[in-house]
Amino acid sequence: MDIGSLIPDFLVFSLAGSSLSITAYSAFRDRNDDKKLLLIIATCFSLAFVVVFVMTFINMDNLTEIPVLGLTFYILIFMAILSIIGFIIHRLMVDERYKQDELESAIDIIESSKNGLNSFIGLLKCEYKED
Amino acid sequence: MAIISISTILVVILLIRVIYKHNPHVHKLYGKEIVLFHSSQRYEKRIWRFNLIEYIKNQKNHPSGSLTFKMVVGELSEDTMEIVKNAASSKFDEISIIGGPQTFCEDKLEIYSLLDRFKSVKYYVLPIRPNKHFMIFNQTHLYIEKPHHHNEKRGAVGVKAAHPDLIQVYEDAYNEIYKYANELNKEEVLKQPCYK
Q1: Domains in chain B, number
Q2: In this predicted structure, what is the pLDDT of residue B84?
Q3: B145 to chain A, minimum CA–CA distance in Å?
Q4: Does A51 contact chain B (CB < 8 Å)?
Q5: Do B147 and A112 touch (CB under 8 A)?
Q6: A-chain residues within 8 Å CB-CB of B154?
Q7: B10 lies in some domain
Q8: Could you tell me the mean pLDDT of each successive run of 10 residues in chain A, 131 residues long?
Q9: Taking CB atoms and an 8 Å cutoff, what residues of chain A touch B176?
């Protein structure tokens, strides 16, 4: 089976898949892990697109015949897709950092509440003595 | 071609393993699931507590045999009452609420009917309004509110399957506060002073 004949289909599918998953990601209102999973799916599709895109380049019969303009477009599209993948990874890392910060502030709340318990009990004791 | 495919698959696996971690809000010193609620997430806070009550109810083996629910609140407000009602209807055997000396006038009748309807609910008041509010669900789970004034929205933290040491701190504090609390029956609730 000639892999070359599958390339156009693969290109379309991977592009459609990544756009669909990014659309689904934006449609989600809650910040949760399911939303992040969609970004990872989008990355998979985008990576598939990059692979297929590289394959089209490799499968060309005569590389010297590609016009300069065609080559420029190739490089531009390649860079754009790579930047999108980079952006998604960056987004995922920001999310992870946000979660870490949330955990830290949750721990802060627990600690401050825990430390203040004794002072309140002390206050109650004082009140009791006064009565 | 094979190299490209394998490296792509590797990148994806790495991404999933390194960046995507399901439920990373775990801390061995605090508990298995720590959730932070911002002051605007009133609905989420309620849902979390409702789900927790449902979860406790559906658990087959309870460590203590009977289901207990203890809380220290500033006042028995509408939100808290919803949670208490839910717990009482979910067959919690012992629900004790310790609140401040004052309450919202509009909630008095509700508290009255709550105490009238559910015998498992006990309501106690302290001579001063507590500034640290928390709920202990069946000696296992915690819900801790950020300190706030009675008319403010508040942030909170929910800890599912909290660390036994942390639970113990709150249990001890609860028992200590309990010594200074007086039980109110439904008639006495109607005479409780109101917030102006």
Answers
A1: 1
A2: 92
A3: 8
A4: yes
A5: yes
A6: none
A7: no
A8: 77 88 82 75 86 81 72 88 87 83 87 86 81 64
A9: 121
> Taking every pair of C-alpha atoms in chain B, what is the biggest distance, in angstroms?
82
Check CB contact under 8 Å for B176 and A121.
yes
**CATH no. for residue B175?**
3.30.870.10
For residue B6, is it within any domain? no
Identify the domain containing residue B143 by its residue range: 24-190
ipTM of the complex: 0.77
Closest CA of chain A from B105, distance in Å: 25
Tokens 């990544």, residue located: A18
Q: What is the pLDDT of residues B104-135, one digit of tens each?
A: 888 888 899 999 999 889 999 998 888 889 99
d(CA A31, nearest CA chain B) in Å: 12
Interface check for A48 against chain B (CB to CB < 8 A): the answer is yes
Q: A34 CB near a chain B CB, below 8 Å?
A: no
User: Is B195 part of a structural domain of the chain?
Assistant: no
Specify if B7 maps to a domain.
Answer: no
